[in-house]
Amino acid sequence: MADAQGSGESSVGLVLTGGGARAAYQVGVLRGIERIRLECGAGFGPAGTPFPILTGTSAGAINASALASGADDYPKALDRLYRTWRDFQAGHVYRADAFGVVRSGARWLTMFTIGWALARWRRARPKSLLDNTPLAELLAEMVPLERVPDLVRRGVLAAFAVTASSYTTGSHITFFEAREGVAPWVRSQRLAVPARIGVRHLLASSAIPFVFPAQSLEVGGQRHWLGDGSMRQTAPLSPAIHLGAQRLLVIGAGRLHEPAGERREAGGYPSLAQIGGHALSNIFLDALAVDIERAQRINATLALLPPELRARSALRPVELMVIAPSQRLDDIAARHVNALPGPVRTMLRAVGVNQGAGNPGASAAGGGALASYLLFEADYTRELLALGEADALAQREAVQAFFHWPAPAGRARLGAALP
Fold it and tell me: How many CA atoms lie less than 13 Å away from 403 in the CB half-sphere?
């Protein structure tokens, strides 16, 4: 938590983590916060956006990029992002037709059984379970990243960053665009470099391992193959703090603390879907909880120091507000598996994802966790949007305090303001 720069409203940062289709929840939270802002009659301050510092990883990087590229009209950018998630279809993200699934997923699964034979022919080696060419087309249309440098120059944005993981070197790389005076940094197995962020950076950051293909990018004169930034991400809060954030809103994509005693033990050997879902949850969810606890401990320790010692410390307190799902998203996903296109359901069934496996406590065994990352379908994303909005509204007083917004004068106009 060292090296924090900036002050005042320009130091408010938003941290959006990974989670595939789970990232719809983040947009629901932001919509709930926007409702609270309207209730309070609050503005955005000089920057014109509540989040001058935006950092994201994986699907969170895509959400952050949409907000960054429209930061000079934040309500419009948020509304557009909300409508995208509200009307999502799997085909917007990956090839979900029979030919596309056979070409990528079926061949990829076949490698597990006869890979020794296919390995002789390089052209027969699939790169990933799914082909995310549609996502590249969607991002090129939806996210005008070419606007970001000018928004930084004008002071609307203080910084924007996305993070990916290098298969080439094993390092964790944060690409950032920021105002002058923000220097690159290097830590153990992670580094940050200035870059003109483009669609390939977003595709790299969101390339879920095995599921989506890695992307090739040049970093410091070396060609790297990059995958999902949530892999080996030991400090998800770090980029925003290095870029100057002193107050952080962190939106997770999974429950940070599981209530004890609610999960029923599943019988039998775990399926590939169950193992895969567990592995993805480890990649996307565990590091955030650990980093939040670390930041809270550092804040508590600094609070015990006399002011003169605190001033000499390289560490600075960072005000944190964390909003994470109040329900298990894999349970929600298990109720919506049937919404996936037929070819995708067939492929996932082959690895153990059960259709309609929505009974409480059984979603893990039924592959609900794995499905929760791939369910880019409106039935599922709309439920996550609603959950995120409800979770934000449930913390109305904490949100007002975090943003220093006044008490609300009335709520009658909300229906017209946020359709």
Answer: 25
